[in-house]
Design brief:
heterodimer, A: alpha+beta, eight-stranded antiparallel sheet, 6 helices, elongated, B: alpha+beta, five-stranded mixed sheet, four-stranded antiparallel sheet
Chain lengths: ~375, ~350
């Protein structure tokens, strides 16, 4: 195998795939990236057996062929090379010679045959949607994924295909983010699947504002085809909890807030939320919210926010991080905050189909 | 100030193969058949518990499921239903509290009751606790009655299942005499062997050694052994004890020298830890995992990581790091988890 390409192109290609590589593994081949050169492109593939990514870059291919090379090492070498023109030549023993300007590197790879193939998708259920829509949807939900490995069904985003809607849901049991995306698909494609965190993170990085993504759901696995890149992942087995039951059906009070103003106030006041209890209190009175936090023996913070509010006076406490996360990830200027009472979940909404349900914290006397 | 052991009455209550018993109760067709509860074979699961029919085949808890199935191909392996077990444990706990407020639960299926303040004699009281549990849950329990935790715990094994045994304060010394030393806390294979070389296999034989002699042999622990082998134990029954961490460790009869050997041991320890976690603290939130190495020169190193989940891969990571810190031979490996404070968990209300 022999090819030459610009440093920029190679780096771009490697950046797309290298996050998937497992750093530590009993299988050395999984630390490698598979390179397949033919007809003007070099395809790159990485996998950790749960998630796999295939991308590539344009190149002058002098001799077609394939090999695998240690991904991180290859990336750091390419990044440091002095000249923008790089040539790579691999001999029959998978030793790669890399030349650029006055530099020469030789790194040892492993045979292509040892690299586990990405899964095949036969009889998969395929839907196509705009990359931008999926990207926005994931951005609005993925921060609520649980990191608690003992509740593994929550370690991912639920993709629920029902009645020409794709509903994305993420929750850690204390808050839940959900978004509905309009999407046309046949009745037979209806399904609930859980895409694991790692695949969601990689996908969010790969998705762009242009073009479509083709989503194929097979048995226990899913593929996202973004034209130039492909991401495949195993699905999390198990039943996602019945998230609908936690969404309050009514609201006693609705408060309209400017997202950025609210976020900035929360951010300031939360500086004095104690590490231990980590709570921030919102006290509602006529046309005003007072946001307060305090840490015993450290100090306290208080900020008032004028709002339109005519309901009863009451206070409710939240984990400030949980309250700020959706505000950071939304783009809307205006948000609605629906509340019932101090012990019931609060719901953040926007003009489009999105909601964020957050359980309050018990206010200590 | 703990009351002196002679004046106390402690019951150790142990539900008989709790999880398996619940499954058999709920599915009468399983009665009389070997039943285990735990992870499936194809997921490298281990059994959390099994009934007496299964134990007859040499199956025990924490045994890998595939191994259990080798010993008893007819073993019925059921997945755990912790929500059900927790509910039953809640009923049992409520029953125990009718008899004393001093209840220290060790796990879902095991507890100490301090019934000193109850005017009735502890033996009949233990029977009534067990009868009430059976009446209300159709599950059997075994009990040990004694003047302290140590004696009560050892006694509860004697007439298991569905039985009890009482050791009166004046009979403690006699009771301890024939017991094998490994019944005492903190005595593992290595200590047992060391004692055997000194001609000591029973508590009675150990009683012949003086406190200084035991101290000479085992250091500070030797002094504890002096009391333990006599059935002396002053620890109080602490209600609602909150476990801060859970760990499992093994001291090796010969030191380990390579990472591969250690890797293998960590894999074994992990299965044990996973089973213990599932049994003792199935609901607690884990904040940190840790790994401890003790070297042949008795120095030690511990690595603790916040944010990493308790899975085998992560323990292997910690091992690699700890192993590379020194080139010394390894005498002991321990792995464990630390829990979030319960107080913090309740402050944030849950949705799901």
């Amino acid at each position: 195998m022999k090819f030459s390409a610009t440093k920029e192109k190679i780096l771009e290609g490697l950046q797309q795939v290298q996050n998937v590589v497992s750093t530590r593994t009993t299988l050395p081949i999984l630390s490698n990236v598979l390179l397949q050169a033919k007809e003007g492109t070099v395809n790159l593939t990485t996998t950790d057996l749960d998630v796999g990514v295939r991308g590539g870059f344009e190149a002058n291919v002098d001799k077609a062929g394939a090999t695998t090379l240690p991904a991180r090492r290859l990336f750091t070498i390419i990044r440091e090379l002095p000249s923008s023109e790089i040539s790579v030549e691999v001999d029959g023993k998978n030793a790669a010679s890399i030349r650029s300007g006055q530099s020469f590197f030789k790194i040892l790879g492993l045979p292509e045959e040892e690299f586990p193939p990405l899964p095949k998708f036969e009889n998969a259920k395929v839907v196509t949607m705009r990359q931008k829509d999926l990207r926005d949807g994931l951005r609005k939900t993925a921060y609520a994924i649980s990191t608690d490995e003992t509740r593994y069904v929550l370690n991912g985003v639920l993709f629920s295909y029902k009645e020409n809607k794709l509903t994305l849901v993420a929750t850690d049991g204390r808050r839940l983010a959900m978004v509905d995306l309009e999407l046309e698909f046949p009745r037979s494609h209806e399904a609930d699947i859980i895409v694991p965190t790692k695949a969601v993170t990689e996908l969010a990085r790969l998705l762009t504002d242009d073009g479509d993504v083709k989503i194929s759901v097979g048995t226990g696995q899913i593929a996202f085809d973004l034209n130039s890149t492909l991401l495949v992942s195993k699905l999390i087995e198990g039943n996602y909890p019945n998230y609908k039951q936690v969404i309050p059906s009514e609201a006693k009070e609705r408060i309209t807030l400017e997202r950025e103003t609210f976020l900035n106030s929360l951010r300031r006041v939360s500086l004095l939320a104690s590490d231990k209890s980590n709570s921030i209190k919102l006290s509602f009175s006529k046309n005003n919210i007072e946001i307060t936090a305090n840490t015993p023996e450290v100090g306290e913070a208080r900020e008032s926010l004028p709002v339109v509010y005519k309901g009863r006076d009451f206070s409710i406490a939240f984990n400030p991080e949980f309250l700020m996360a959706p505000l950071r990830n939304l783009a809307d200027d205006e948000i609605f905050f629906d509340l019932i009472d101090e012990m019931s979940p609060g719901v953040l909404k926007i003009q489009t189909p999105f909601l964020y349900v957050l359980m309050p914290m018990r206010v200590s006397a | 100030m703990p009351l002196s052991s002679a004046s106390r009455a402690i019951i150790h209550l142990d539900m008989d193969c709790f999880y398996a018993a619940i499954e058999v109760r709920d599915r009468p067709s399983l009665r009389g058949k070997p039943v285990g509860v735990g992870g499936a074979r194809d997921r490298r699961g281990v059994l959390t518990t099994c009934n007496y029919e299964a134990r007859a085949f040499g199956i025990r808890s924490a045994m890998p499921t595939f191994m259990a199935l080798q010993r008893c191909p007819n073993l019925i392996v059921l997945p755990t239903r912790f929500d059900v077990y927790r509910k039953e444990a809640g009923i049992v706990r409520e029953i125990m509290h009718r008899f004393t407020s001093l209840v220290e639960t060790l796990s879902l299926d095991e507890a100490y009751l301090d019934v000193t303040a109850n005017m009735r004699p502890p033996g009949p009281l233990a029977r009534e606790v067990r009868d009430t549990i059976f009446k209300e849950t159709k599950l059997t329990a075994s009990a040990g009655v004694g003047p302290n935790k140590l004696v009560a715990k050892i006694a509860s094994e004697i007439n298991k299942p569905n039985g009890q045994y009482e050791v009166k304060p004046e009979k403690v010394s006699e009771f301890m005499h024939p017991l094998l030393v490994r019944k005492l806390w903190g005595i593992g294979a290595v200590t047992e062997e060391k004692l055997a070389r000194a001609g000591i296999t029973t508590c009675g034989e150990m009683q012949r050694l003086s406190r200084p002699e035991l101290h000479e042999l085992f250091g500070k622990f030797g002094s504890e052994l002096y009391d333990l082998c006599r059935g002396i134990d002053d620890r109080v029954v602490e209600p609602n004890r909150e476990r801060k961490s859970l760990s499992t460790e093994e001291t090796f009869s010969s030191d380990l020298t390579t990472l591969e050997q250690c890797d293998e041991k960590v894999t074994e320890l992990f299965e044990e830890l996973a089973a213990e976690l599932a049994q003792k603290e199935p609901t607690r939130r884990i904040t940190k995992i840790f790994l401890k190495l003790k070297f042949s020169d008795f120095t030690r190193t511990t690595i603790e990581r916040a944010g990493l989940g308790p899975n085998l891969g992560n323990y292997h990571l910690l091992l690699e790091e700890a192993f590379s810190r020194t080139g010394k031979k390894i005498r002991l490996i321990g792995i464990g988890v630390r829990f979030a404070e319960i107080e913090q968990e309740v402050a944030q209300l849950s949705l799901l």
